[in-house]
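Thread: F41 complex, take 2
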Amino acid sequence: AQGSVTASPSQYDGEYDCPVTVGTPGVTLPLDFDTGSSDLWVFSSELPASERSGHAYYTSSSSSTSKLDSGETWDISYGDGSGAEGNIYIDKVTIGGITVTSQAVEAAESVSSEFVSDTSNDGLVGFAFDSINTASPNHVQTWFGNAEAQLASPVFTANLKKGKAGNYNFGYIDSSEYTGSITYATINSANGFWEFSASGYAVGSGAFSSQSIDVIADTGTTLIYLPAAIVKAYYAKVSGSSNSASAGGYIFPCSATLPSLTIGIGSYKAVVPGTFLNYAPNTGSTCFGGLQSNAGIGLSILGDVFLKSQFVVFNQGVPKIGFAPG
Ligand SMILES: O=C(CN1CCCCC1)Nc1ccc2c(c1)OCO2
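Output below.
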């Protein structure tokens, strides 16, 4: 089997949400596909009504195929401080025409305010490695982990776009979605992430600095977070920029012309256009950068600002990750 699903950007490309059908009869929910985590969780009838407002949700008792995963709970916290927790049902989950008949569906009993107010999604699908799934006392498998048996190849691809719909494909690589050739990097999955070493960076037309940068590819994170020294070197080329405590990161005049950012993957030079690095308006005539320091995060993240400039192959078989111009 093979599948494909549309990925729709929220405002400012903050996240990319995809329709996922759960249970029988199916309820279709827009879920945030997140290669930085490994829980599939949904807003549910078990939430207080106040936390469900503005959201669609899963009601396990209305699904004839739902079965309580007795004794199992989940509780997740994300790097941005948001979180959710609840209990678990086994039910049918279909994405892009591919159905997993016995998927662990983590039903939310409580969600943090960030999720209540983010009405773009009604939960998440984690596409990282099973080792960081939060179900307890036993891990549950990701949807992709369960779907792999149906796929010709243990791959999914991300074809995210700036300001318009893109897609995720499962089980195949569509050569019409990229140009040139795909360059792969080996994945170190020891921390449960799609983690690899980038080979360096360049700012605009400047010299490429060859250095190993440990990064994760995370579709669930909006921005790019890199070591402070690299970020400082980037904004040194943006007149009027500053690292603003009140804004929570680097800002600059919205009229600024931003240089591109090149990230090396092996010998491949992945270029993020300067326009992608003006993320969104801040206050007044200042704008907030799509590249920010990783200080305090503990790792570097290639989030959507980077990923939407590329065609990305996530191969869980090896594991390896591939990039080509989108
Ligand atoms: O938390 C996330 C991603 N997370 C994915 C699930 C939805 C809520 C956002 N990313 C993230 C991770 C570390 C960070 C950060 C953001 O901001 C500063 O440090």
